[in-house]
Amino acid sequence: MNEDKDEVAGINEGTSAACKPEECEKWLNPLYRAFLDTPGGYSASACSGGDGICIFLRFEGDKVEQANFQTTGCTACSLCCFFAVKLALGKSSDELGKITGEGIMEFMGGLPEKDRHCAFLASEALGKVLRKYRMKQLPKGTILRKPCLALVKPAKEQHERI
Length: 162
Description:
The chain has helices at about 1-20, 20-30, 75-90, 95, 100-110, 115-135, 155-160; strands at about 40-45, 50-60, 65-70. The protein is α+β, with helices and mostly antiparallel strands. A 3-stranded antiparallel β-sheet has the order 1-2-3, with helices on one face. It is globular, with a radius of gyration of 21 Å.
């Protein structure tokens, strides 16, 4: 049992040494890490690195009133989620749609190349929440149709067959 605690302490020390003090505090005690009881939407995304993200948003009118997250990812993933939900708070659905991975990284002050995927994962999760929210806003009975693409041969080839 003590071996497990020592291993976790070693991981925390290594992570703490790699982070700025304010980042380390956000990682160890993230302000928005929690589930919402009745979210206005939710989303989950995962990437090949094993990082998993759930972002929860509650809307009041068309503005994000509350934003929380859960992640199984690394420190960078947790920080990206923190900054993504911080960016989302108070935004309208149109403004929310403009939050990108690049925007999250810029708001954070940058990320190492190896951690950049975390910002894009967080923005992907926000995008999924937004799509679900917008779907709920459609009038009941609305039928959505995906555009249908048809493959048509050029007119010259059609004449050659006749």
